[in-house]
Amino acid sequence: MKYFVLILMFIIFSSGSVFAQYEANVPEEMMNREYALKADSLGRKILTEKGSYSTGIELFMRSATIYKHLGGETDPDYTNAMALLAKCYMRNDQLQDAINVLCQLSDVYKKNGLVSEQYAIILDNLSLYYSMAGNPSKALEKSKEVLQISDQIELSKHDLMLILVHAAENYAVMNEYKKAVQIQLRALDLTHQLYGRGSEKYIDELKYLQQYYEGADEKMKAKRTAETIEKLEKPGGGVRSADELKTVEDCIYHRGDAYWCADYYINHKLSADNALDAGKYAMAWCISTDELTLEIDECHAKYLEDAPTEITAYMCACLIIGQTYQVKKLTREMERLAMQWTVEHYRYNRDILVNKSSKLDELVEYLENNTLEEKMKEIFPDKEDEGSLSE
After folding, report:
1. What is the pLDDT of residue 7?
2. Most exposed residue of 169, 191, 323, 357, measured as fewest CB within 10 angstroms of its CB?
């Protein structure tokens, strides 16, 4: 490993002139997948840690060159390396190079008929880079291409949301506001499902919709959107009625609302606007969904049975942890974390509770002495054959 890194870094810093544009002259003895993977790993580390992007550029040039030599231009490792090369160029303020790389890469997909999720993301990034470079007509052209592709393939809700948001922006910049409104409404529906109507992300996208309505001269719709924004920006403004959660399908659609309500409940005083309704919504979601299975055994009941507000807090914590780690059933370690959050919520609200819990008061003492985590392990011992947060 040391030998490879020394050779690699020596070549990078001493022979920049030998690099052809977007490809590297790689010595024959290094032309293998092992070296490509190491260069790729170093490059990804630079992107993650925001290191020297110029070094990242050279690293991804090398890994891409090796991948292409070994597997051809359709090798997924090659296309991934090229996409990361473009990202390094963009972060290094070399937008034209980033655009050139993605144009080259999109030609590979088009020529080989590779209609895929990655192709859609590449075109979306290309659209974004054109926009950043001050070329709105090309940005819109690429958005139109990616919208066509998105109808042919299955994309994650998150990726499709970003594609739609970027497309709406590009249509608006070109003064095609009616089309921008149409696409932004689709983006908002996905934003709602992902983050909830009370989320900052949803409210931000509503503000863009208001602008697009104004540009399209739809004044009444712009006014109603502004009123909705004002309502949602108030404390607890995004809390919804639990009556809408009747089926498993309802819970899937309102996953983001449930997360937002759970987060609002557990991070606010019980006296905050709509806090209790937020808790009711999160509990209703936990009861109706098939995406989370909660077990409140004797260990939990001992500490929660005389504290109904904290049973809600515990369920909210489980909801948040379950969605964050994308698990249906929480591990014991996750349950302990949920109980720690519950104790913190109880301490935060204890001064306004009419009926306090002696059992939770006991746990608050451990919390204040910074020993609650160890106490949790004693109260909630590990179960057999289960994973953990670190896995």
Report:
1. 46
2. 323
pLDDT value of residue 6: 45
Confidence of residue 23 (pLDDT cuts 50, 70, 90): confident
Rounded mean pLDDT of 316-344? 95
